[in-house]
Design brief:
By secondary structure, this protein is an alpha/beta fold. It has two domains: 68 residues, no CATH class; 252 residues, Alpha/Beta hydrolase fold, catalytic domain (Rossmann fold), CATH 3.40.50. The protein is built from eleven helices and eight strands. The protein has an eight-stranded mixed sheet with strand order 1-2-4-3-5-6-7-8, sandwiched between helices. A hairpin with a 5-residue loop joins strand 1 and strand 2. The chain is globular. The mean pLDDT is 90. InterPro entries: AB_hydrolase_fold, Hydrolase_4. One of its GO terms (biological process) is phosphatidylserine catabolic process. This is Monoacylglycerol lipase ABHD12. Keywords: Membrane, Transmembrane, Transmembrane helix. One of its GO terms (molecular function) is monoacylglycerol lipase activity.
Amino acid sequence: MGAICQTTLLAGSFLVFLYGIVPLLLYVFPNIELSLIFMSAVNWPFTNYSDPRAYGVKYDSRNFYLSSSDGIKLGVWHMLPKSLHKSSVFNEKGFDTVFDDERYPVVLYFHGNTWSRCASHRIQLYNIFTELNYHVVTFDYRGFADSTGTASEEGMNKDAHTVYQWIRTHSNRTAVLLWGHSLGTAVATRFASDLCLSGNCPLGLVLEAPFNNMFDAVKNHPFTSMYRWHPWFAEIFTYPLLKYNVHFKSDEHIKNVYCPILILHAEDDNIIPSHLARRLHEAALSADRDSTFKEFSRTKKYGHKFIVREPELPTITKNFVKKCTSGI
């Protein structure tokens, strides 16, 4: 009898903690939710970013740093196309000058939350791009990896502008394709909107595992599923987003994106359900934008971050770039 009472007490205490204490902590300390959204602290300690090839990058590459307009140091990788591997590019100046060759488009990649630019599934994608003879430029947002500062929506947008401006400093002619994954799709979409509104649309925009806006992403996330019945759900989970100006309203920004858009999503994505990607696609179509939605069957088991394993991804990418360039 005593064991049953003890078990009941423990179970009751756990439920009180789970459904009482945790929501209270999230409400009183809204920065906790912010940390869960960006998860910039989730990374391998003592990582050395100086040699991209040590992490599996296939072709010649370099690590360097840029400074944003507000003094943030950003860690950046630049990977060369296959055709330029082992060429005469051996120094910083050489890497910079090859951007001006229009035969090799540039993919500016925006990663999702957690880890860094050297995460293995990201490396696999970079290698697909370089194999297709594209330059790849990727970076860690402020607060991630070896970049300084603290992650925020506004700050990440500034970071995107900083890296893009560096690309354009070295080439005004080379086409730039924006590719974002997960949280990075929101950064890429807002940035693409900025470029298009300024009359400088990118070549195209690829959104891998995107969501329509942060409010819906939070509401549909597995972590919040156990709290959806909670009478204070909106106050607990929406208040921090409003307080810290974290909206990521891709469904609004995408209406200003005039270049071709490709949305890729896995049917079995349990982190960002595919119906949120469909809502984003529908928002683009409602504004008469050129958006294509491609969903991968759950039988492929790609989940949230392994669309990179799709055998047809190189062909899909190449055909999309061809479509984009045909409209120039």
